[in-house]
Amino acid sequence: MAFDQQALSQYKEKLLIMASHAEGMVTRAVRAHIDRDEALAGQALETDETIDQFEIQIDRIALGLLAQQPGEFDLRQITCGMKIARDLERVGDEATTIARRAIKLMALPPLSSPLDIAEMTFLANAMLKDALDAFVSGNTVLARGVIPRDKRVDEMNKTYQDNLTELMEAGEVEVTVSVVIETFNSRNVIADKPGTDPDAGTVVIHEEEKAAG
Q1: Can you tell me whether residue 75 is helix, strand or coil?
Q2: What angle do CA 169, 170, 174 make, to 5 degrees?
Q3: Could you give the CA distance from residue 162 to residue 174 in angstroms, rounded to a whole number?
């Protein structure tokens, strides 16, 4: 029986939809933190169940595809997709953590010098989107472009951590600062997910190098 390429394409499309939900959840959680918006934080928390269900559905589809005894390349695509789904589920978990901490921070005094975290969130979400797009389309240029951007997010995270430490030393409420630090750590984890070898776009690079060799 010939391998069902259409089913594989649908499998990848479902991964893109799952990634879109994860990206939106991160955006809502961070915006809730910035705007101190408890309702928006609640919306982010509600999305977690949707992402969990997508992971279950993707694993079920993957098992059906594996039962067709795919060739080496298709096999790698399927197993990589399963790993991506797990990473996206973890992104949802981190967004849940951010939303819960945002709610906790709403009950605490705001920092006297709020940090501009929108850029870090934008970069993390863009990495997530580009990595998944690279995987689905087989775009090696896009895949290679994702990996070095993780360093920029790490640098931004370190700068924010240093700034928060300075605020704590200057007499800011210690509990408020410590919760904000934990929130930044979650954002950094989100940025790390799409760059993890051999997941997402990096599998595209692996196949290109294998063909060239």
Answers
A1: helix
A2: 60
A3: 14
Which of helix, strand or coil describes residue 37? coil
Return phi, psi of residue 113, to 5°: -130, 80
- Whole-angstrom Cα distance, residue 160 to residue 207? 37
Residue 25 has which token pair? 């959840």
Q: Which residues contact 121 (CB under 8 A, 6 or more apart)?
A: 26, 27, 30, 187
pLDDT > 90? residue 67? yes
Where does residue 32 rank: exposed (0-12), middle (13-18), buried (19+ CB within 10 A)?
buried
Give CA–CA dist 182/155, Å, rounded: 16
pTM for the whole thing? 0.78
Question: 5-212 sits in which CATH class?
Answer: mainly alpha
